[in-house]
């Protein structure tokens, strides 16, 4: 259960990104916010535990591009152009995208019960969505593309042998941040000076949403599997909406509260199903 609780912290922290942008970072370029989120976090982790990457450079670079250098700009474009509930809802297509990608890439057909739970959870997320929100097509495309990158990277991480998750996180963030610097200069020019108002938001998204959350995300894929981690990611929009209520003044209606209940129900059933399967496998040799 402890592994699932740690995994649940990841989408909750990532769901806070939208509130951090609204409260602190709305005046900064999304590309430079991506740099400030990734590079300081990666360098800090490398300072704490220096050493070579735990994967070959080719694989390390692929993970860094998909999880950081390409993902972060798309994520922040979505965060700047969409309400948090909308961006989180589109990001919560991860379980469905992951199942589709496993089917197409690995030939693994999804389990019916997991597919049904994913659909129930996503239906709840759609109910959370504010129906009056205007959906920006560029922001929506960015959110869906970012989610597809995470799905592909999750499958690599599941299959590649990695034992040092801490150093993996450090190198992902460092390489991804370095790759983002020239992109930010090309797209946005030189960075604006960071003000004292923006500093708390950058510290939050760099230290907690990146250093800690990416370590917990990679560890969770190894411990509970990519499918379970994808299901738990549906807490992202729940966290985004809940923080929107308390920090940004958003209001939820009864259908949105019902949607939150559906998401939580699907997650509880998923965890129960996984643990039941693991108990059966553990007892099987003794029979």
From TrEMBL:
Q: Which Pfam families match?
A: EamA (PF00892)
Name the PANTHER family for this protein: EAMA DOMAIN-CONTAINING PROTEIN, INNER MEMBRANE TRANSPORTER
Q: Give its localization.
A: Membrane
What superkingdom does the record give? Bacteria
Q: Does the keyword Transmembrane helix apply?
A: yes
Chief place where the protein resides:
membrane
For the keyword Transport, the answer is no
What species was this sequence derived from? Grimontia sedimenti
Q: Which membrane topology describes this protein?
A: Multi-pass membrane protein
Q: Which InterPro entries match?
A: AA-Vitamin_Transporters, EamA_dom, EmrE-like
Write down what this protein is called.
EamA family transporter
Q: Which SUPFAM superfamilies match?
A: Multidrug resistance efflux transporter EmrE (SSF103481)
Q: Its family?
A: Belongs to the EamA transporter family.
Q: Which residues cross the membrane?
A: 29-48, 60-80, 86-105, 112-132, 138-157, 169-187, 199-217, 229-249, 255-272
Question: Would you tell me the Gene Ontology cellular component terms?
Answer: membrane
> What positions does the domain EamA occupy?
4-129, 140-271
Task: Name the UniProt key words of this record, in alphabetical order.
Answer: Membrane, Transmembrane, Transmembrane helix
């Amino acid at each position: 259960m402890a592994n699932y609780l740690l995994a649940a912290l990841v989408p909750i922290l990532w769901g806070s990104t939208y509130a951090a942008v609204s409260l602190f970072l709305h005046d900064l370029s999304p590309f430079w916010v991506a740099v400030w989120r990734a590079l300081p976090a990666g360098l800090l982790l490398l300072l704490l535990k220096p050493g070579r990457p735990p994967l070959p450079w080719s694989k390390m670079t692929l993970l860094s591009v998909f999880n950081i250098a390409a993902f972060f700009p798309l994520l922040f474009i979505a965060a700047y152009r969409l309400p948090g509930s909308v961006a989180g809802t589109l990001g919560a297509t991860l379980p469905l995208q992951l199942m589709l990608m496993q089917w197409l890439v690995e030939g693994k057909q999804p389990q019916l019960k997991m597919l049904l739970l994913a659909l129930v959870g996503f239906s709840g997320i759609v109910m959370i969505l504010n129906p009056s929100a205007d959906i920006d097509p560029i922001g929506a495309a960015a959110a869906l593309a970012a989610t597809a990158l995470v799905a592909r990277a999750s499958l690599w991480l599941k299959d590649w042998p990695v034992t040092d998750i801490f150093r993996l996180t450090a190198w992902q963030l460092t390489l991804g941040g370095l790759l983002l610097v020239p992109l930010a200069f090309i797209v946005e020019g030189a960075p604006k000076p960071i003000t004292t108002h923006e500093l708390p938001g950058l510290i939050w998204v760099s230290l907690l949403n990146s250093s800690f959350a990416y370590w917990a995300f990679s560890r969770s894929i190894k411990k509970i599997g990519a499918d379970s981690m994808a299901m738990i990611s549906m807490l992202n929009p729940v966290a985004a909406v809940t923080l929107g209520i308390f920090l940004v003044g958003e209001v939820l209606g009864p259908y949105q509260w019902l949607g939150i209940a559906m998401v939580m129900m699907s997650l509880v059933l998923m965890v129960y199903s996984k643990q039941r399967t693991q108990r059966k496998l553990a007892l099987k040799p003794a029979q």
